[in-house]
Amino acid sequence: MRGSIVSIHIASEEGGVLQPLDRAELVAGCGIRGDRHFSADGSRADEALTLIESEQVELFNELTGLSLAPHDTRRQIVTHGVPLNDLVGVRFRLGDVEVEGVELCEPCAYLADHLTKQFSITDIAAPEIVHGLAHRAGIRARILNDGTIRVGDPVACE
Question: What's the predicted TM-score (pTM) here?
Answer without folding.
Answer: 0.87
